[in-house]
Amino acid sequence: MLPLQRWLSPEEAAEVLRPYAAFKQRSAGNGMDVDALVLSDGFFSGAGLFTGGRVSSLMLENTRGSTFIDGDLVVDGWFENPGGLVFVRGNLIAHTVYTSEYLVILGDLRVRRLFGEDEPLGTCVFGDAYVESAIFSHNHQFNVWGTAHLGEEVHDEVHGREALQQRLVDWGLLSDPRQEVPSDVVRHGLRGLAESWGPLSDELASLRYTPKPSDFVAEPPVRPPRPDIILELEQWFATTTLPQRQQLEALRTQWLARLSDSTVRAEAQRVIRKHINSKKLITDRDVLLQDLG
């Protein structure tokens, strides 16, 4: 397994996902959005935050909750996600990928053979997908936000089980296309295939995910704290029992000089307009505001 940085509560895991704009968008593919809540909840346990990097082969087993991989994941051989909730905060590059349940990739997916099993959530790629050959079994969803470069693909729900089994024959994992093959046989076959190809090329292994400004949700501007004098003025209006005409007189005698600073003047004018709203006093109020500057 990859090195564990720390365990995230569901709330902390949600904060890891929150900045990324892709969780706010719907895919141009099947129109489904990515369920950040499922990832952050992690079977009610949160997520383990693991360090990415380069490994020879990898099967992700994290029965405690979701698996968040921090950075690119480069796999010289085979990669398996047999039923987990996985978020890769970077690229996923491997010879073969077997995945079931949920696999979400922030960057690009680059793989020679991809086998997606089962339908609950599927595989989601926020970047581009480069796949030489793919098989999607039992309505496994494959959703790409960028550009999907699929050399060939078979969906058993579309092309039928025989077409799926024929593709396994083409991959060298099955000898008879009429034979049903268990998922464990597919997994072990993909392992052997990946190992026969040797390590990834230096060119592939050197690719890195570089986030773009558009990848992040624009944070709302932070309003500066309101000046103390404005808060005091609001409190005075909220608690005074004076009628508005006497309030206007008090503003001139007690507040005018205190509100003359250029940093508070405009907001003070808005507050006064809001509270001195009698039609009979509008002219006198506007004279006061003019004197305020």
Characterise the protein shown here:
- By secondary structure, the protein is an alpha/beta fold.
- It folds into 2 domains: 4-215, no CATH class; 228-292, no CATH class.
- Helices cover 32% and strands 30% of the residues.
- The protein has 10 helices and 11 strands.
- Strands 1, 2, 3, 4, 5, 6, 7, 8, 9, 10 and 11 form an 11-stranded mixed sheet that branches.
- Helix 7 packs parallel to helix 9 (265-275) and helix 9 (265-275) runs antiparallel to helix 10 (282-292).
- The longest helix has 15 residues, at 183-197.
- It is elongated and about 95 Å long.
- The chain starts with a strand and ends with a helix.
- The mean pLDDT is 90.
Topology:
Blueprint: E1 4-8, H1 10-17, H2 36-41, E2 47-55, E3 58-59, E4 66-75, E5 78-89, E6 92-105, E7 109-125, E8 129-137, E9 142-144, E10 148-150, E11 153-155, H3 156-159, H4 161-171, H5 183-197, H6 202-205, H7 228-239, H8 244-255, H9 265-275, H10 282-292
Parallel strand pairs: 2-4, 3-5, 4-5, 4-6, 5-6, 6-7, 7-8, 7-9, 8-10, 8-11
Antiparallel strand pairs: 1-2
